[in-house]
Amino acid sequence: AYPPKAKIKTWKKLVFCLGxxxxxxxxxxxxxxxxxxxxxxxxxxxxxxxxxxxxxxKGALLKGAVYILPVVAIFALAIYFFIKSGRLPNLxxxxxxxxxxxxxxxxxxxxxxxxxLEYLGLLIxxxxxxxxxxxxxxxxxxxxxxxxxxxxxxxxGLLVFAVFIAKRSKLxxxxxxxxxxxxxxxxxxxxxxxxxxxxxxxxxxxGFYLLLTIFIHQACYFxxxxxxxxxxxxxxxxxxxxxxxxxxxxxxxGTYQRNFVYQSTxxxxxxxxxxxxxxxxxxxxxxxxxxxxxxxxxxxxxxTLVIEKIDxxxxxxxxxxxxxxxxxxxMTEAVKAYKKALSIxxxxxxxxxxxxxxxxxxxxxxxxxxxxxxxxxxxxNFAEAYTNLAIVYAKKNMYDKALSYLNQALSTxxxxxxxxxxxxxxxxxxxxxxxxxxxxxxxxEINPDYDLAYRFLGSVYLNYLKDDKKALYCFKKxxxxxxxxxxxxxxxxxxxxxxxxxxxxxxLSLEN
Length: 512
What we know:
The chain is mostly helical. It is 70% helix and 0% strand. It has helices at 10-30, 37-50, 57-85, 98-124, 148-164, 170-181, 204-223, 233-259, 265-275, 280-292, 296-310, 315-328, 331-344, 349-361, 365-378, 383-395, 399-412, 417-429, 433-446, 451-465, 468-481, 488-499. Residues 89-99 have low confidence and may be disordered.
């Protein structure tokens, strides 16, 4: 009854295969979960080609090998390069007897069995009160620890069901196995940093929703089944339309309600703290959000809570406390916080860098240089540390050394706008104003919203290069970007005098 399948020309097959291969490689470098594609292809080939063959299965296997073996080879090659580049999670390293070596794998296997059931629960009922950007999940140690044995039994039952139903309903079996195959990179045997993260269900969710669609379709079929053992096509479409419309409305309402949490970072991490009160990271992130919003006291409360009630050795909390104390001008407390962070993690380059900034504020230049150099020894590509080191040497009037470090910063990160800003600052101290202008223009080119660079450049035009038009433009631009810019009153006077051509006798300091 159906027309024969059109034969695809060889050159078209080659184009399609090459396009698929390129897409696969690009996908691997976009999201590591793409590494499960070869497994899905093998599954698809088995279900929709090999299992359907009633004759010449040996020939079908040989023919399939032509397609499958290159896929497996590419898969193996991809794993090799990913391990070499550090993009895949590391397996536990050998550390003693065989039992301890596999202990981490066992723990992860048992824990992830429960996590997989949690993922299924969230897919079935994604209620806003259950959704969380940063889940806390305990580690499970034993098969007999509730609910591990239940979770493993359900998973095993689903896998056995998928195998047994394969010939009767390939689509159902394929959907179940799709879900588990695409979860392998995140929910299997090797330990990973985050135990449970909701976005890991995005690709596996296709299998779940395919299964849900099949179930709804079959349910609607039985609902509309008539006495004559027939069903009306129009009837089943109407029932399905109603069911799917209800699902879409419910999901839309849930999404709408959940979006309120994403109105601000403070709201988002408050929600996470309520749902994961025993986890340190949500408190730290809420503290950072408070800090960015200017609520420094509240930020300190969150960091203190982590240290006192959750994890006294939480390095990030001490580091963040140091940042807050620095903003508050409490330099002594900032030094203590950074030193505490470094006592926990001596190789924390950012803490060394920030401690250097505090020492610089305290006019302890030699100690500041020492900390910046430690940061660079730990991270040779730390552009900010190079810049800070350059500023200290500039304050010591060692301009050649300052320029050398700034050039290293900019060679490390050519798009480092603040580096060019500071390069302009050093050139201004050397009274080389054409080079100051060049550096600042480059800084603004990289970051067009850098209001301080506009103010600085305006000062150069006004005070030294004597170009009132360019100075007026720079000051106006700086004020449009940031109406609360530094030296606001002076800048307003300058703009007013330049616009009225009355001459300007206001001198602005070039330093930030």
